[in-house]
């Protein structure tokens, strides 16, 4: 197929997918129509024709349905060829010397997680993380829901694609807004790394992981890496922007890339320079650590000297006291910088900080202000012995060699105000009219000491009406919103409680799995680990919360005031009572595993993540699969049934 025509077809396919998915969301989620049925069918037919002509099915296409996968653990798999890291330089002269007389390609070094994706018969069959370069983790279930990765390609021979999985700044900020205070992710790379390793692919799907390919093995012989990149694009992959460069144009190319950083939608940590000639690259060989045909060019960080004016200590809702360095303003990478997070006590001790010290600061990856070094190292900074908000004695915690400062007072005003602000937020109790500023006023006035007191604000009518900014009308609206919130979904209430590690999605998982607050409170760590996306740390957080007598006392006080809307519980005589199911493989009749699991649990059955002696049925549409679950079921004599057979039970 002509490459130009194929590129045009792929661009049109992406456009059609966007239009059709937006129309589908409007129709099914908002009960409106973005296009007529005739227009929708015409566009869908055009997409189907293009998919048939190109042999490519892009991620998100309405012609495929995504079945989410849940894994017991990530399998370790050896790479066919070692994935080496790159030698690095910040010296433009060294870069010129590397290029020498050769044609080279320069592209972004995306700051994500390297993933190798293998295809056979035109279909994605395996995806592996880089791991230690020799052995990676199998994340195929998550790669299948990456936002832009082709599920099917036109080439039917075996090929291997290496690329970078990333999460954009926009999605990073969206996801962090959904986290509880103190539980935000530090940067997009950390978020990406954790996301692609999730055992439940539904989580990866919601986080919109993007994949940018940068090399290809197989798929037709060529001696040009640039031609390889064009081949990847023709197969439906996105690639990072690149330019062809020779030694005399190296510095200009680097400057052009550098000037584009503020406009990028994703994080980078430099550039990658590689020889275009594949045969030349092969002739160079490699060391035990680095290939000789590629070089990472890192930005020479712009640093500035300044004076540390103070360290501000902020108490979070979780009790963690976060230090922030405030210094004399300096210009860095085109903007004025006045402060930078110091993260924890270990960093402060390592820098030997003291007020008045001369420090150097820079922007990590030209974006995030950081303290680079302390030139005078007085070491005179005092670590607060008392919480800056409530005055309670602080605790110095040391977890795995990282020291942090903590306020143990559960009644700390900073913790209380932020905890109550979270409680009334949209995805929690959803009480309009209680802003953080209003909550702070009510806390100072003594009206609010816990979330349970919100439902007793009606008793302070005269005091609240007399407050500045309030009146009879405002008070009436507030009480109406509070009354409305007394009927609340179980998942929303669990989220409102602010249990560490439990945000909106985890709260939904708990509600769906256990069905009532009483069952969640009584759940064992072993039962909690069975919840999709949960691990030992999250399970311990839940059991720890409900083991706290103060938390139970609050729940006992709040319970009579609330109506918790819980999922429908199965009847004692339900058809699946006493049965244990395990679900694996792609689904055809259910939207995802969660929907099938909900159906089973409503009929009294249980769903486990692994096959054991107590398993009644393994549901797998591919009975002949050589998967570990199928093998285990066969060893134990567990019946393997398809969705169709399940529905006849």
Unreliable residue stretches:
27-32
Tell me, briefly, the overall form: globular
How does the major sheet shape up? 7 strands, antiparallel
Mean pLDDT: 85
Radius of gyration: 28 Å
By DSSP, the count of extended strands is 25
Polypeptide structure, described:
The two termini are 49 Å apart. By secondary structure, the chain is of the alpha+beta class. Helix 1 packs across helix 8. The radius of gyration is 28 Å and the shape is globular. The longest helix has 27 residues, at 3-29. It has 24 helices and 25 strands. Mean pLDDT is 85; it is low at 27-32.
List keywords for this structure.
649 residues, alpha+beta, 7-stranded antiparallel β-sheet, 5-stranded mixed β-sheet, 35% helix
